[in-house]
Amino acid sequence: MVLSYYEGNEKYMEDKANFIRNIKKTWIYLKDCKANLIGYASVSIIEAIISAILPLISANVILNITNGIIKQLILSAIAVLVIEFVLYIIYYFKGFLYQKIYQKTLVNLQVAVARETLKLEIREIDKVSSGVFIDRLNKDTQDISAMFMEYTYWTSYVISNIGVLVAILILNKYLFIYAVITSICIFVINKKRLSKQYAIQENVKKIQEKKTGLTGELVRGIRDIKVLNASHSILKQTTSKIVEASNEEIRMLNIQRIYNYLENNVRMICDFVFIIFGCLLYDKNLLTIPTFVIIYNYQTEIKNLLLGVVQLLEYNKKFVVASNRIYEVIDDKKFKKEKFGLVSIKNLSGSIKFKHVKFGYHEDNNVIDGMDFEIQPNEKVAFVGKSGAGKTTIFSLITRLYSINDGEILLDGYNINDLDGDSIRNNMSIITQNPYIFNFSIKDNLLLAKEDATMEDIRNACKIACIDDFIMSLKNQYETIIGENGVILSGGQKQRLAIARALLMKTEIILFDEATSALDNETQSEIQRAIENLKGEYTILIVAHRLSTVVDSDKIFVVNDGKVISSGSHKNLLKKCKFYKNLYEKDLSI
Length: 590
Ligand code: ADP
Description:
The chain is an alpha/beta fold. The protein has 20 helices and 10 strands.
């Protein structure tokens, strides 16, 4: 019991510290809507005051009717009309300001989360499902954007209710005590509900992000799912995640429903007690009819006196959960960001050296295990070896998608860890096995590589990459939209488009990861022709999954067990490296 008190207390202190820290951080994203926020707070306070006065005047209307004072009645009715008119104008402006603040904050936050997601280390993305980032970008930012409005609204609500409480105290001290007791009852019920819901809120979000990740994969992987005839098994897994998420939501809603039922009953009993208590007070001359009517008109406000406080507490907790989640992405704590050096080199000449490099995706397993090799500028080299030997991983290290555990990678003699991001990434382009093509037009996909490229630059690059003829044969030519991940293109066409993208970037180093899937001979030779067009002008590194395509390379590195076991020209290797000879003979027999 004592332990749980301390644990609870520690959690409370931690949440409080997180709340204050995250509010300060979030304030930055609201900077450009300060004036709107002040406007919103001001109209909210006016609304709160009017809401407190309105029941008083309404009570007057009832009293005037009962007493038959027609002139007073008309005046009170006009007052009600005017006040309600003002109230609706306020609602209109509040809605307008709310929209502005919400949208601006949402845009600022979502852009920040998107920007920071792009800076994450690939290792972090490998570890978790994509839903972790998608949900934080879409849902948690919405929660936070709504938060400041809610604070303003409920703070003004609390202020107006304090006004009501003071009014009741002035009118009748016995009913004041009743009001306090009633509102405490409603407060306790809501507080209890809140703590129960909060306990599962974080879990709900975790389950939901797994569901988002899986449903995303279901859509993106639909082709493979169909061909593998894996619909049944994927649907089974997706159903289990959907049901799991739904069960958690049901738990939340059950808590809500049970406590709503409890609260409604308490409210009903309070109404009954109010009338009986009022009668008793009247009987003992402790309450007059007009006072009773006025306080009766405040019934709802009385019961909701502390509800604003509950709502504020609820939003505090919601804010802590949502903001913790987005700052895990924005800050560099839970999910690590890429870190680069400070040396800036505009144009690398293209020499690459691996000095006893060690790297593993997991701590206990080195995929690259003491690798050494050297490539001169403008050389065309190839990496060959069995599947899974670590050839593609070499490219991920040269492009610094991952940082090495030991040894050194030198680009133009500079340690890769000392170079800044632009020096590395602006000087190399990579054509992967299955290049990602965005659901834009062909032209826009190419412009990603060079924003200011002219149509002439684009077509020249595509001609060298042997894809221009194909594009010009399409109805909308370069304006053709190529579907998500370039669905309308074949594997070979995607690779040639990626080559054109690389050419537009005009990088000195071009990394080419040959498609493992056997492309038809014609496509294969088109790609060969595209690479041949680049020879001599660029440093070209090819991961060869088919040896026959790289026999003309200046140098071939034979990779096995995370090391380069031999290197040389094709002829040279056939003579001196049995491992290579075996690989080559096997390749010929396919
Ligand atoms: P290759 O290109 O020679 O076929 P890779 O470099 O792709 O081989 O892979 C080398 C090894 O690293 C393989 O055992 C593969 O399973 C593993 N591997 C590749 N990528 C990852 C990753 N993102 N996370 C964990 N292991 C990986």
